[in-house]
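Work Package 4 report. The design task specified in the project plan requires that, given a folded chain encoded as structure tokens, an amino acid be chosen for each position. We show below one input record used in the internal validation round.
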């Protein structure tokens, strides 16, 4: 039987506020354990939470950018469960009356557009972090770091509209780009400021009812989300083909082994005993404030993509790639400021630059070749100082060493030979050495022209000006 995956994603994104959601403790990452805490975020008796207005503003920005309906009245609720990194014994979140609902994000797969619905976006506080030490001579130990407790999050819940791992990856990339364009989340998946859980089930193709779902956790990159979903589809398909039942459970993704494994059973939904938090008043949003926030929204990925196509005349595919992140779009426009040839710049970024970054698993912000240096390299090609082929070698060294193009060209003696008299001598030598091929060319075997060009380039170690070589060869032949 052929099955169809049904996938829904729950994303937790840490907001870029300077202080936590209900107290004024800093939200810095990587500090000494338990140094960014206070009685409020650790839940000491008698302490009272006070809502950070910036958290509400950032959540509203996310809602407006994703076409959500904003509730004029919402409530905070206590989500009750016990875990060592949850000092209060409950998490302050939103439940029945969230701040925003019913939005959508448009994605593009193989030039086809698809709309993924958003069920809700709500605010909540993060829990702490457990650190496990299994190597101690005294036996294994676990430690709790409460620095992250109370850090503001938005939980963004998609509708079960995703039908493939590729769509899931495209949705996450688009969502992350929107949050980063809004400057409300840094999108760092390794540090946990943008993390995702996936719910996946299979159903017979054409069926309308949903199958039994499993929840996948511990996926810290787009690639791992896609790999985990691929594996789970294969695992569930094999079980269904054998006539076995899928168990509703939570499974962990093991990136090293490339498999998911059972973490805990989930026969029924958890009963968290939600109830309105008595320490926090209902949240009423003023419509004028919403309009002020709407007016302050920056250019978002979709708008920027349309502008790139309109202003720079580049294809839709190029514009889609270049607007996948705000830093990448900025890099492209800085290059254009210094070298205003839109298609040439986009070709180099999408081929040479992004290939090297992907190989090293780096983001554009970590690129060792600044936009100005890339534009200087492209000027050297246009001026005829180096050939396009040599330029690729120059770029590879720029990427590895951080040096500028001119310095590398001088050091290697890679300046292009553009002296017509010198090139004529080299062409004559190539034609004299390959007399049989010359005769065959003149008898109609015109494909040999490329052979002659290759021989000239070989004789000049790739430094001959290709355009001049072509002109001289045509004249001589």
């Amino acid at each position: 039987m052929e099955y169809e995956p049904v996938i829904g994603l729950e994303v937790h994104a840490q907001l870029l506020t300077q202080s936590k959601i209900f107290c004024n403790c800093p939200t810095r990452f990587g500090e000494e354990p338990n140094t960014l805490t206070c009685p409020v975020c650790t839940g000491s008796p008698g302490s009272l939470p006070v809502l950070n207005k910036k958290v509400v503003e950032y959540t509203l920005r996310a809602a407006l950018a994703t076409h959500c309906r904003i509730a004029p009245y919402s409530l905070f609720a206590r989500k009750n469960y016990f875990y060592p990194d949850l000092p209060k014994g409950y998490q302050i979140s939103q439940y029945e009356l969230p701040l925003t609902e019913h939005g959508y994000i448009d994605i593009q797969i193989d030039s086809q557009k698809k709309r993924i619905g958003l069920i809700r976006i709500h605010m909540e506080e993060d829990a702490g972090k457990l650190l496990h030490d299994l190597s101690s001579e005294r036996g294994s130990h676990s430690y709790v770091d409460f620095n992250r407790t109370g850090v503001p999050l938005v939980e963004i819940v998609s509708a079960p509209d995703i039908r493939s791992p590729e769509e899931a990856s495209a949705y996450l990339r688009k969502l992350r780009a929107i949050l980063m364009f809004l400057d409300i989340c840094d999108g760092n998946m390794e540090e946990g400021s943008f993390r995702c859980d996936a719910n996946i089930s299979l159903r017979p193709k054409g069926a309308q009812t949903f199958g039994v779902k499993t929840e996948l956790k511990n996926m810290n990159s787009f690639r791992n989300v896609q790999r985990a979903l691929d594996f789970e589809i294969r695992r569930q398909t094999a079980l269904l083909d054998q006539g076995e039942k899928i168990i509703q459970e939570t499974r962990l993704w093991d990136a090293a082994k490339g498999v998911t494994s059972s973490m805990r059973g989930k026969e029924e939904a958890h009963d968290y005993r939600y109830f309105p938090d008595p320490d926090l008043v209902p949240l009423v949003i003023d419509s004028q404030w919403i309009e002020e926030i709407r007016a302050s929204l920056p250019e978002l990925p979709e708008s920027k993509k349309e502008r790139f196509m309109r202003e720079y005349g580049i294809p839709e595919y190029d514009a889609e790639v270049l607007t996948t992140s705000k830093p990448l779009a900025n890099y492209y426009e800085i290059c254009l400021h210094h070298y205003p040839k839109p298609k040439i710049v986009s070709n180099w970024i999408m081929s040479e630059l992004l290939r090297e970054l992907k190989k090293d698993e780096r983001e554009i912000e970590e690129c060792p070749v600044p936009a100005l240096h890339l534009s200087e390299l492209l000027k050297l090609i246009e001026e005829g100082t180096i050939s396009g082929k040599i330029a690729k070698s120059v770029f590879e060294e720029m990427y590895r060493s951080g040096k500028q193009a001119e310095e590398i060209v001088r050091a290697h003696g890679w300046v292009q030979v553009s002296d017509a008299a010198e090139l004529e001598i080299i062409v004559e030598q190539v034609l004299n050495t390959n007399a049989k091929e010359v005769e065959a060319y003149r008898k109609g075997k015109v494909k040999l022209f490329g052979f002659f060009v290759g021989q000239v380039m070989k004789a000049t170690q790739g430094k001959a000006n290709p355009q001049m070589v072509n002109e001289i060869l045509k004249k001589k032949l």
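The chain has three domains: 8-164+176-212+270-291, 299-412, 420-476. Validation will be extended to a larger panel in the next phase.
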